[in-house]
Amino acid sequence: MDLQRPPIVMIHGMYATGRVWRNWQGFFERAGFQVHTPTLRLHDVAPEAPPPEGLATLSVADYVADLERYIQALGEKPVLFGHSMGGLLAQLLAARGHARAAVLVTPAPPAGINAIKPRPLLTFIRILSRWGFWRKPHRPTRRAADFGMFNRLEKRVADEEYAGFVHESGRALFEIAYWWLDRRHTTRLDFAAMPCDLLLLGGQDDGTVAASVVRATARRYGARATYLELPGHSHFPMSEPGWEQVAQRCLDWLKAR
Predict the structure, then answer these.
(1) Which of 124, 102, 63, 140 has its CA nearest to residue 221?
(2) In this structure, what DSSP letter does residue 109 have?
(3) Residues 6 or more apart from 118 whose CB is under 8 A from it?
(4) CA–CA–CA angle 109, 208, 48 (5° rounding)
(5) Per-residue pLDDT tens digits for 9-54
(6) Is there a contact between 167 and 138 (Cβ–Cβ < 8 Å)?
(7) Cβ neighbours for 196, distance < 8 A, ≥ 6 positions apart
(8) What stretches of 28-134 adopt beta strand conformation (E)?
(9) Kind of pairing between the strands at 79-83 and 8-11
(10) 8 A C-beta contact, residue 16 and residue 236
(11) Would you tell me the crossing angle of helices 118-128 and 170-177 to the nearest 10 degrees?
């Protein structure tokens, strides 16, 4: 491994574990990086197990605090990769100075950007319409996942991804989807003060985080951000056909820095 290359920390999103990065972990390790794929608190459980006690009320802030400790233990500032909610966590960590650079893959946006578009709303309507969802664990049905997340995955891969889905915190979903109602302003950050460069990837056919939302997020960061839209891709470009080309474009962006 080239010891001058910083470590990479890849942060997964809702319902997932660090395993979601398996393709890109191998790709970037072969490129000479040391890659870490932590699993968020109370996500390292058997998918068929009941939701762990305490999961439902975990905050985005809890995930950020855990990841801060994880990064500090590395002893070197990493490059952050984040997918979906993990993309939001990566932004919050980068804003606090914990990243040399960040690659945000179909990222959930911080406060101030409306992520509720028609198709994502349909993807999550069953969860969001349930009274008290913000204090309950949740997991999408396979039908919802196929509609909004897996629509560009091969069936075999979609089966594998869904089989690994675990429950997620209702509070975290509330803080992201309804940020304007969150009195703690959990997902707020100062866009103008972002201290590192960002690459944001939007899937043209994404039914979870619309490409228009990712574009709007990139615009808020100004010159610090590079936006790359991915035709033929949806919410899981790390596993969809053509993932190698997407990973290579991310590597090229990193090499340019």
Answers:
(1) 102
(2) P
(3) none
(4) 110
(5) 999 999 999 999 999 999 999 999 999 999 999 999 999 999 999 9
(6) yes
(7) 94, 99, 100, 101, 102, 224
(8) 35-36, 79-83, 101-105
(9) parallel
(10) no
(11) 150
State the Cα–Cα distance between residues 58 and 137, nearest whole angstrom. 10
Task: State how far the Cα of 14 lies from the Cα of 147, in Å rounded to an integer.
Answer: 16
Say what the pLDDT of residue 46 is: 96
Cα separation, 156 vs 154, whole angstroms: 6
φ/ψ of residue 197, rounded to 5: -80, 150
Tokens of 225: 């951000």
Predicted TM-score of the model (pTM)? 0.97
Rg, C-alpha atoms of the chain: 17
Look up residue 144 and give its two tokens: 């919802």
Q: Which residue do the tokens 């972990």 mark?
A: 25
- Judge contact between 233 and 204, C-beta under 8 A: yes
d(CA 85, CA 64): 11
Q: Which helix (H) or strand (E) holds 226?
A: strand 225-230
